[in-house]
Amino acid sequence: MLRFEDLTLFVRAAALGSFSATAREAGIQPAQVSTAIKRLEENLQTRLFARSTRNLRLTQAGESWLPYAVSVLQTLEAGYQQLKPPGDELSGLLQIAVPSDLGRHLLLEVFHLFRQQHPALQLKILFSDQVSDVFKDPVDIAFRYGNTHDASYVALPLAANNRRVVVASADYLSRSGTPQTPEQLKQHNALTYTLQGRTYDNWTFRHLGESFQVAVKGTVTSNDAEVIRRLAIKGEGIAYKSWIDVSEDVQAGHLQVLLPQYQGDDLPLNLICPHRQQLSPAVRLLHKAVKNRCETALSTLPAIVQ
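Structure (tokenized):
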């Protein structure tokens, strides 16, 4: 007979890639995790992990079975939530993955107010521009930019009309001039962003129904989007940023929007979770709070000047 605790430890070990890390998270000994996995493998009559002294990875059978184990745990959690009386105080741990600039700049205050409203709830917030795997990483939900076409997870819209804009500080523009066309960006210092070894130095624009790219270059690139925004504010160069990341800076006069007649890439923001059954009351309320904040930011998005 399968044990609930063994399923939980299997899913966490698959996410963390380590029996020791799983044991530390669960507050038990590594030998207990190893015993639980062995018991699970005996019940299933198959190896779930390939083990070595330095490496732990799922076997093909383990990879195939993992989504089913996750689904079972989610169903049990959903049933538990149904047993709780309505109006119960939110409690437990909510693990969140959020892009660095969005999280530290726009959403940190949302998280702070949310915690004040629900003092029994714990938040574990992971700031990273790496794309989180909500099935394997130790997170419950993730905030993710871009269009979502993967039907294996649930995506709740937060800022469907968000897009990229070109911004720079008044100090930079006074020293280097203001570009009047995207082509003139080639003569400017572009602050570029790197993700998983790829540098995003081709900026896309649409104008009068046509789409085109401009290859830019500059003296600074970073894998942290917040660094790019801060350097733009300091006058280091021109950045191509998500509007909801820079909306407050533009409103405060720290940055100016350039080339308003050219539309940058669409960049919708969504809340991602593995399964609809994982949409707990805490997740639904946090989604509402973040969506309200994003809608406030989008209300100041400059119109395209034709």
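The two ends are 67 Å apart (CA to CA). The first strand starts at residue 49 and ends at 51.
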